Amino acid sequence: MGFMRKQMLLQQRASFEQTLLERMSSLSKKGIQPPKTDKDPIVKKLKADIKAVNKRLRAVAENDKKTEENTKRKADRAAAPKVEEAAKSEKPKKASEEGKAKKAKPEGGKSPKPAQPSGEGKAEKKKGAAGSAEAPAGPAKTPETA
User: Fold this and answer.
1) Are 60 and 13 in contact (CB under 8 A)?
2) Helices within 2-145 (DSSP H only)
3) Residue 2: what pLDDT?
4) pLDDT tens digits for 93-136?
5) Which of 68, 70, 110, 133 has a Cα-to-Cα distance from 143 of 20 to 30 A?
6) Domain residue spans of the chain
């Protein structure tokens, strides 16, 4: 996308410069000298447009530069870890062998939950839902709208 944006900005700048040259020549034909042409509102607008486009082009160039640096950095990182990964993978193995032993798991793999009578838990849920003082989430329905 940066390339297309850059091409568009270059075309815009060329267009603004061409329009500025045409305006300056038309003002000189009318007999207006260069110090007074700088006060012309159309000339001011065109110069401001050129300045803005140049600023955008600098931003695009900076982004391109950062992108190139990032791709170089990624390429360097991709090539370098091959040697370092072997050294890093040996250290954690030694530490885990010498380190603390793992805690023993209870039977069944999970800790047992306290047993609740099946009838009481369901009844509590129904009471909690029916006895809640909160209003329903949707708009209140009246017999006229239903």
Assistant:
1) no
2) 2-29, 34-37, 41-79, 81-98, 118-130
3) 78
4) 555 555 555 666 666 656 556 666 565 555 555 555 555 556 66
5) 133
6) 2-93
